[in-house]
Amino acid sequence: MGENIRRTNIYPNPARSFIRIQFQPSIPPPSALVIYNFLGKKQLEVNQPGSNVFIDLAEFNRGIYIFQFRDKNGQILATGKFQVEK
User: Fold this and answer.
1) Which long-range contacts (CB under 8 A, 24 or more apart) does 2-8 make?
2) Quick one: how far is CA 22 from the chain centroid?
């Protein structure tokens, strides 16, 4: 039932040079933030990301990206998407 609770806040979206992803604080905190491009290729992985992540998009191409917060066992805690416009 709690699956529809919004656990993340992403801004700006669409983004040009940076994006900030805020994760609703949880216990335990997420162990990783993984970002994939729309073809499913891993673009970035941040270990121990905390609940407020700033990402420089200099190495990101224009397109749609999927992100996942994961726990220490690799289970997905939250997921979402954002768009990069360049």
Assistant:
1) 7/69, 7/77, 7/78, 8/67, 8/69, 8/78, 8/80
2) 8
pTM score > 0.70 for this model?
yes
| Right CATH for 2-84 from 1.20.1290.10, 3.90.190.20, 3.40.50.720, 2.60.40.3080 | 2.60.40.3080
The 10s digit of each residue's pLDDT in 8-29 is 899 999 999 999 999 887 777 8
Domain ranges of the chain: 2-84
Tokens at 55, concatenated: 């990402």
